[in-house]
Amino acid sequence: MKQELISIVIPVYNEESNIAWFYSELKTQLIKKSSHNIEIIYVDDGSTDRSLDIIKDLAKHSDTVRYVVLSRNFGKEAATSAGLAYASGDAVVIMDADGQHPIELVGEFIKLWHEGFEVIVGVRSGNIGEGFVKRYGSVLFYRLLRIIGGKSVTPGTTDFRLIDRKVVDQFIKLTERNRVTRDLIDWLGYRRAEIPFEANARHAGNATYSTRKLFSLAINGIVSHSTRPLKIIALIGSIISVLSGFLATLFLIQRYFLGDPLNITGSALLALFVTFLVGIVLVCQGLLALYLESVYYEAQNRPLYVVRESK
Ligand code: UDP
Ligand code: MG
Hints:
alpha/beta; 7 strands; binds magnesium ion; single chain; Spore Coat Polysaccharide Biosynthesis Protein SpsA, Chain A; binds uridine-5'-diphosphate
């Protein structure tokens, strides 16, 4: 039987002080121990430090190491996609370059893969040495996602995962530009298993995912998978309009039929009229949103369904 090949995809952005160290860890903890063939695919995401030199040097000395170089910094999501497109393994593992993803877990991933799971996801249970913003930001994000996006996702799911060749092939077909890799893989479905892990502290350097980038990733995560926010606007608008219309009717009745006991001023009526109109404007926006929604889903150009296997 042909020996299975496992690809390890590692997006790299300015990780000069981590690459060589992480590679030697991979070598001792995984490559030497594993009964599988292993290829490591570094995706250099437009690093401006010595990362690429180090990668090329590793590749020169070992056939296990391959690399893809992007023309500029496209962001981790795009870099990961490039790595997936380039990987030729029967299964692909996605890992960070900074040592936060424990290598021991890859063996567990492979075990579950052999049991027939096609997507095996590392779920972060704790985060050693992670700041306040990230810790509470991610808690908040998953809450928001549940409320606004109407989706229930396991909190802490990461990009650290193994995916089967079948999943990789489907992933490559997705064309949308606003992408969050893990969400797209989740969207594809397939048999899924989750393994909890404690993220290590970064080996060296600082996380390059700034708070701003994380925030826009969070927004993307919500917007690219749900149009519920658009509909919430319409709902709020109609509530405002109905309420103010109702109040205005009451005011008019008490003024002209009951002799104005509440002593409503003209400006109060005007204010009510304005809120009524604002409500209507919001409803119209919501209506537009419904059209936008269908255009949006078409423009995403995702396949309508995904076939696991066929004969
Ligand atoms: N990364 C990348 N392109 C970017 C930012 C980050 O390829 O624009 C890589 C980075 O080198 C690392 C991984 O993505 O391997 C995770 O980045 P980081 O550790 O900065 O973020 P974290 O998710 O740990 O906060
Ligand atoms: Mg990191």
